[in-house]
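Retro notes, item 3 of 5
We never archived the inputs for the adenosine-5'-triphosphate complex last cycle. Fixing that now. Sequence and ligand:
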Amino acid sequence: MALLEVQGLTKSYQANVTVLQDIHFHAEAGEFLSIIGPSGAGKSTLLRCLNRLIEADAGDITFDKKNIRDLKRNELRKVRTDIGMVFQHYNLVPRLTVIENVLHGRFGYKSTLQGILGLFSEEEKERAFFLLKKLGIEEHAYKRCDQLSGGQQQRVGICRALIQNPKLILCDEPIASLDPHSSKVIMDYLKSITEEMGITCIVNLHQVDVAQSYSDRVIGLNSGKLVFEGSAVQLTQSFIRDVYGMDTKELITG
Ligand SMILES: Nc1ncnc2c1ncn2[C@@H]1O[C@H](COP(=O)(O)OP(=O)(O)OP(=O)(O)O)[C@@H](O)[C@H]1O
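Structure as it came back at the time:
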């Protein structure tokens, strides 16, 4: 069985305006899956429905054999420790240090009091340093996050997701605020996470060429409908036109 199975997912924010319509797809363990589509297609809504940051109206989301949409608050909290999230604007606490931000990824495992007091074990701290080293930013561990570049902050965001020991990482336009070099660094790290750690990554992207280079599979949304699902190789010009209604040349990042 796939790690994640989505069936018939539907979402409207307002009556008669369907943002996601009957979406079906799956993601295997260790797979790198991109979601592409024009602005407003529903990519962020879809990603956020997966961990119930946004509540879908209908459909099933089966993650690790559990139907996410049926879970009660405490069960959902537990399942969310298996699902990391990486955001376009990093969502770090700017005045806190890099290491403190990374350790925030352990909050899902703590009681409220432990969380407030910032009680972390030596093992958790060692793991945080290990991850910072892996992402090449251990020298910045004690700097405030607002002293880091965008690319470095995104690496902190990835470390914070990884310290959860997730099975799945959802990345909502992780490179949309970054220059081409930093974007490549982040995409390379995300790819290595799937390959070396076996963690599934689902990544919303605006750049078709990036999706094609990094993904095992791509899904394409247009106006809330799934209009493509297949391997990067199967994503031909004709399918790209179905997704965007235009030629790829306008979508290549260069
Ligand atoms: N909270 C909300 N309330 C009402 N409508 C919303 C809300 N969030 C998103 N929408 C609408 O839902 C549609 C899909 O938005 P969504 O952000 O999921 O698209 P997207 O593909 O991620 O777009 P982008 O690439 O520009 O980020 C858009 O028409 C948007 O205006």
